[in-house]
Amino acid sequence: MSAANVTANVTANVAVNVTGPRGTAGPAVDRHRVTQGRVLRSEWIKLWSLRSTVYTLVAAVVTTIGAGILLCAFLAGQAALPGSPHEALFDPAGASLRGVSLAQLAVGVLGVLLVTAEYSTGMIRATLSAVPRRLPVLWAKAGVFGVVAAVLMIAASAAAFLFGQAVLGERGTTLAADGVARAVAGAGLYLTVVGLLGVGLGFILRNTAGAVATLFGLLLVLPTLGEVLPAGWARHVVPYLPSNAGQVIMSVHPAPGDLAPWTGFAVFCGYAAATIAVAAVLLKRRDA
Amino acid sequence: MIEAHGLTKRYGGKVAVDNLSFTVRPGVVTGFLGPNGAGKSTTMRMILGLDAPSAGQATVNGRRYTLHAAPLHEVGALLEARAVHHGRSGYDHLRALAATTGISRRRVDEVIDLVGLGEVAHKRVGGFSLGMGQRLGIASALLGDPATLILDEPVNGLDPEGILWIRTLLRRLAAEGRTVFVSSHLMSEMALTAEQLIIVGRGRLIADVPVADVVRGSSRPATRVRSPQADRLRDLLAGPDVTVTGDGTGVLDVHGLGGEAVGRIAARHGVTLYELTPVHVSLRRRRSWS
């Protein structure tokens, strides 16, 4: 490396009051290097400066809570049958969290859109010329969205649970009951990872329709296909399918044959991590 | 300073950019001229590290763009007018880009004023005209006060006022000592804006010359002359490299002789002239690359 390069490197790495040629510049512009923290800040600004993002997040929260309350109200209207085997299987926590299966559509689509909207508008070229090392953009998108989705969706699940139990009255349960707190938090965590899967697929496919179709193919269609497998195989395959594995964490009493709650969730996270790893390799290697 | 060394880009069997080497120097506006599809945008994307070259490399201020720790401070780029999410306001777009390298909100406000978008900056970009979109693109290029600017077809879609604005801005940026690299498919535009021209066709370098040379070389001298003795003058001017056309009303268009030569010949033979006008052949009509 030449002496000139070394100097350039040093000045770029240290925040100094150097400006380029004067004039159009106006006052001095501070020169800072690109860091992961700054890219996170950039993605944070991007997330909240789009109305569509905010609306989608609101829709996910409202759906989670609203659908839970509605289902609980419906069940509360039905007469309880004390002592019947049916009543023993009744899962009040699960009923109040049922909105998750709708909310995953909103969260998943949003995860995809955070990425594919940049490709469809050409914004990605501005983004990647600002951050030419590229990977910080992927980490920042996943990080910002992951944290926002986790906070909002765990809160939404908790609200859905509390309202739902209030509606169920004496058929309801409490957070203190065995496995309930895990199921409630797990509902928010499941939604978060669905969103991250969307972010990864967005970077891989770079196309909204393709990524959304793939995401819901994996989450909704695959389990249906799994049911037509011969029983001998199904036992070894079905529990490991992405949404089957991921949703065990939301059930207070997992069905026999399901994975253990945290094991299932770890498998689901594994799918998301693998997707994001593929996304990282492709983002680094492909032309923007 | 931008340097390209043997820059090549192949897509399958098709060569979009073929072994391009050139240097873009600071202090002057350098035009990057060629028809659509000549490889100009691909070359610019390779300089910015968006596309990987199949061979060769490009450096900006001595190192590859992707290796700069604060790229927005090195190079400002306008790649496409609408490399912007339509749902975001111009202000938020600039703020998100600025945040990647810690540029202050004050600087964002400055560049918005500089490009004259103050009134619409908080509106959604989707409602912007093409001209406003170009101005927003230029604002994002200037954010980091970079010493090098790369602008792909900045005058596309602009009204005459906007074109004049860009022309003046580019010259001022170059006069401040910056490297200014501007692509266009319009020779006429480049003749007015640039001082140096890098001309490409089908991905290859055709010429790397001062604009003045191209303008001079692109047309033989031509003169319009009006005389009551037009027929006699026509005979006197005739020569191997000279063509004279007349419309029968006493006006002659002389190609191959300048005004001085025509005037001297007329004086020597006592021919009266009412008018003697040098004519510039429009550069737009000469597309040497096509």
Q: List the uncertain runs of chain B.
A: 281-290
| SSE sequence of chain A, one letter per element | HHHHHHHHHHHHH
Adjacency order of strands in the biggest sheet of chain B: 5-6-7-3-8-9
* Span of the ends, CA to CA of chain A: 28 Å
Largest sheet of chain B: 6 strands, mixed
- The percent range for strand residues of chain B is 25-35%
Structural class designation of chain B: alpha/beta
Please summarize what this structure is.
The complex is a heterodimer of chains A (288) and B (290). By secondary structure, chain A is mainly α.
Explain this structure.
The complex is a heterodimer of chains A (288) and B (290). Chain A has helices spanning 3-13, 36-48, 51-77, 85-89, 92-96, 100-121, 123-130, 135-168, 180-205, 208-226, 231-237, 242-247, 261-285. In chain A, α3 packs antiparallel against α6 (100-121). Chain A has one domain. Chain A contains 13 helices and no strands. Chain B is 32% helix and 27% strand. Chain B has helices at 40-47, 71-74, 90-99, 105-114, 130-142, 160-175, 187-193, 211-217, 230-237, 259-268; strands spanning 2-11, 14-24, 29-33, 55-60, 75-78, 148-152, 179-184, 196-201, 204-210, 222-226, 243-246, 251-255, 275-279. Chain B has a six-stranded mixed sheet, sandwiched between helices. In chain B, strands 11-12-10-13 form a four-stranded antiparallel sheet, with helices on one face. In chain B, β1 and β2 form a beta hairpin. The radius of gyration of chain B is 24 Å and the shape is elongated. The interface between A and B is large, with 52 and 58 residues.
